[in-house]
Write a structure and sequence with these properties.
This protein is of the alpha+beta class. The protein contains 5 helices and 5 strands. A 5-stranded mixed β-sheet has the order 4-1-3-2-5. The relative contact order is 0.16.
Length: 159
C-alpha cells in the first residue's frame, strides 16, 4: 500500500464505557483492516485505505454511541516507517488524551488533531461538530460534583 492511498480519520463520541460495544468496535477495526488508537474520553483515530476507513466508520456508527461524530479524514503521509498502532490492524487503547497527542506528535499529526478537536493553544476553537461544553456557575458546579460523588459512593456500596 503506497502512502498516497492511506487516509487518517478522526471520530469522536461520548465516553467509550460499554464493554460489549467496545469489544465490537475493536472487532470492526480488525475486520475493516484499519489501525489506530482509541482513547478517553471517546476518541477514535485510525488509518487505512479510504474504503476501509469508510467501512469502519459505518460499523462504528451502527453501534449508536451517544453523539458519534466523524470529525475529519485526510490523506496520511507517513513519517518514515511510523504508523498508528505500529500498523497492526485493530485498535490500541490509550489511557488519556495527552498520551494520544504524544503518539500523534511522533507521526507528525499532532497539530491536525489539535485543530480538529478544538485544542489549539492560545485560541478558543468552536466547531459545530465538536461536543459543546456546558459551563456551570461555580455554585452549580459544586452541587453537581457533590451529587456525582454521592452517586458513586451509593453505587459502590450496592455492589
Amino acid at each position: 500500500m503506497s502512502s498516497s492511498s492511506i487516509f487518517i480519520s478522526l471520530a469522536r463520541m461520548h465516553h467509550i464505557s460499554n464493554l460489549s460495544k467496545f469489544r465490537r468496535l475493536k472487532r470492526f477495526a480488525m475486520q475493516s483492516s484499519v489501525s489506530g488508537f482509541t482513547g478517553k474520553p471517546g476518541i477514535l483515530i485510525f488509518h487505512g485505505t479510504k474504503e476501509s476507513n469508510k467501512t469502519f466508520l459505518e460499523h462504528a456508527k451502527g453501534l449508536r454511541y451517544l453523539d458519534f461524530r466523524h470529525v475529519d479524514t485526510k490523506s496520511f503521509t507517513r513519517n518514515g516507517d511510523l504508523r498508528l498502532a505500529d500498523g497492526k490492524h485493530g485498535l490500541e487503547e490509550v489511557t488519556n488524551t495527552s498520551d494520544l497527542v504524544v503518539k500523534l506528535d511522533l507521526l507528525g499529526e499532532k497539530e491536525w488533531f489539535r485543530k480538529k478537536m478544538g485544542m489549539q493553544k492560545g485560541a478558543v476553537q468552536i466547531h459545530s461538530n465538536i461536543l459543546p461544553v456546558k459551563v456551570l456557575p461555580t455554585r452549580s458546579r459544586q452541587m453537581h460534583d457533590m451529587y456525582a460523588t454521592s452517586r458513586q459512593a451509593t453505587s459502590s456500596c450496592s455492589r
